[in-house]
Amino acid sequence: MDVPKPRILTRRWGLEGSHTLAVARKHGAYESLRKALTMEPSAITQVVKDSGLRGRGGAGFPTGVKWGFVPPPEKRGDKPVYLICNADESEPGTFKDRYCIWNDPHALIEGCLIAAWAIGAKTAYIYLRGEFKFVKDRLDAALAEAREAGLVGRNILGTGIDIDVWTHLGAGAYICGEETALLSSLEGGRGQPKLKPPFPAVEGAWRCPTIVNNVETLQVVPWLIEHGAAAYRAIGTEKSPGTKLFSCSGHIRRPGVYELPLGYPMIELLNDECGGLHDGRTLKAVIPGGSSVPVMTPDEVARATMDYESINEVAGSYLGSGGFIVMDDRTDLVAALANLLRFYAHESCGQCSPCREGTGWMHSILQRLAAGEATEFDIATLRDVANNIHSRTICFFGASAAMPVQSFLKKFPEEFFGRAGVDVPDDWQPRAASAK
Amino acid sequence: MPTVKIDGIEVEVPAGTNMIEAARKVGIDIPHYCYHPHLSIAGNCRMCLVDVEAGGRGPDIACNMMARDGLAIRTDTPQVATMRRATMEFLLKNHPLDCPICDQSGECRLQDYYMEYGQYESRLSDPKVTKHKRVDIGDHLVLDAERCIACSRCVRFGDEITGTGELRLFNRTDHTEIGIFPGARIQHDYQGNLADICPVGAITNKDFRFTKRVWYLKETDAVCTECATGCNVRVCHQQGQVFRLLPRRNDAVNKSWMCDHGRQAFEAITGLDRLLRARVQGQPADLDDAVAAAATLLREAGGGVAVVLGHSASNEANWALLKLTRDNLPNATVYAVAGNDPGAWDRSDDFLMDADKNANSAGIAALMAHDPAIRDRSDLVQALADGDVDVMLVLGDDVLGRLGADGAGVRVIHVGSFRCTTSDAATVVLPAAHPYEQDATWTNRDRRVQRGRRAIHPAGDSEPAWALMERLGAALGKAPGATSAAAAFKSLASSVESFSGMTYQSLGNGGAVLASPPSPPTDDEDALETIHA
Fold this sequence. Notes:
The structure holds two protein chains of two kinds. By secondary structure, chain A is of the alpha/beta class.
């Protein structure tokens, strides 16, 4: 499609040595920081609010609004405020944050510093998933350079402002991408989500006000300071402004990370950016926003655009983290779903009953089904288990494991009943009453 | 105070009350496993999911939903029943269902809630996950991780109550299990509580397991008399035999807890040191004959008579003893000897185990305030040294042991439940009932008068000490009027100011605190001037 494709997140990607301070600074890095540190923190938050930037981790919550939840100094007493960057990118099908950090670590550091200044934090932690050791090494090198140059730590750019940025490597649990589990892990505990309320903005890391933002979200912030909220709003759609990174994988010719304005037609992303399907194949299904969101049919793919609203209206699914997984006609959807559930059954933190017991249960039913050893009664049980997990758990993991099952059974029932050796019953209700 | 609505019933509760407690107030039981009123909220079992009618979004867990104006929940909708059934199915997915050999049977929440919210028709066809069984985690505890529903109550108890943190959740997903760190062992003094708070049969008490099916047990509300704390307990017994003690909730005293020493103290009821028969001159005797012999000793004493109140004995017994002395033995001197018996258990802390091992020290203090003629320990030491004591009547305590005296030259009448230096030296021994064998009250360290009820018949020939005082008083000429525990307490309450107005009815299950004694009169004029200025 002939729409402008501004490069906000990827502006320094592809430059020789883009991860070094010298190259990054030559191409504008830390100029926004210089400007931001002269602004009132509340003015920065206002810019982010006005820009309509929404959290890129998956939930799409307005970032500026989230920052506004930090209690004002008179209410929080002498408790420090923390900024946490969530770099625990573990959602199957999502691999944008690692490229963000790998190609432009200084954009993240700058984003962290500006966000920290805006919310009144003197300390920012970047929490990376355990498998990102190599990413952390590059980020640590960039941090050392920035610290050496007086951009991180005490008296930043001679302004007298102190903000330090630290990296922390997790132990490799998917659940630690859930913000309260991330905080538990960062605090040194078992990576387990916490009950809400209280919400992290009020009582987060070490029970202090804490804002947790995704890597991609924070990397947008320097651009916002430089170009203003109106410029950002000019891109994308009214409710989903700006650009977004899409991690594209599956049966496509050109897998990779693409930056596109929100509202971009899904079918064009598939056919143009991703290079379309391989010869002789037809489209069977797409998971548009990382493994947790409901699956889409080819018909839905043809009608949807890549933004928070359209995917939900057209297909009842979500933009999520932008993990775009394409499956062609040779895909065994039962096996694909069984594979997905293997992941969730392995990653459930085990804290609350429905998810702890239900994810393993769904996986074992799907394994039997994939092997042709299950009946139509097992399919009904599978449906009930998914319905009984969804929105009955402490965190969103339960729903994340349930939604693929619910949507696959709803949109591709013939694949599942076929495996059980029967036709889809006439009275099949994909969203039937949960327990018997 | 916010007003909330539960199933259409409005109730006003203090701010900070959650919906489980608010519902309890209006008689609605919201099933739950992980919530415990004296532990932090974990919200992981999901059994207490309720519908939110107004003032929030639902379904949500009642345990973490705090009262606020306008909040209205429903526990009676088809969806709530469905959610409970679903949670039960999840919890039983990998549960071994070994109820026939499980000690929790009969008081297991999985069983209780299954009757109401079971699927009945199983659709579990996959093999169950196996976990560790029969793990020896402490002197009093065994862990069966397969029965566990991972509610984390025990973990929170270790973190929040004892601060010892031995137990943790290990692994993830359906392999999640409660466990103990390698080489670690639970060694604190409150282990039994872990078996109590385990809502299923995962943690069981070694001392009780395999001894009795719980549905055969009757429960009687009583008070532990092993130290001055006076933990409220339930005595679980069948046909005259006590099988276990459980703590009874009293937020002003022991909350939901008790120590392991107190929990096993009932074993002394049938212990070898128990005094079951009266004795005169070292020979077994009929109780009537022994009472007569004691009366004769007291009446015909050649020298001074010392009457020693019992710091461990009940308020009723001490009052009856004091009254019979004042009524019948005008020349006797009454003493109170503080301190612990030699050989008493010696563990104490700043939680429930008090260093004072006497159950009724505060009650004795109240009697001393009422009757200034009561002398203390040093006076008795002096009297014994001066040879002023010919006959000594001792209620319960091992007075000779406490004083390190041999009692040479003193003829002792000992009224007690257990053999000790004093009873060995006694001329007459009257066997007294164990606290769990009688109705009586004790006054704890916070001056709370608490009522224990008789769980079992007194063993052997023993009788409650207040009844023995009644017999002795009758033999001396004037009985104190302790024809029943209630009568003895009534007499006490009508005579001793700090007990004034108390009755067994008014004490209820939680007890009541003694009135403060009026400040002693002072004739220091400076002090008076200071007060009046």
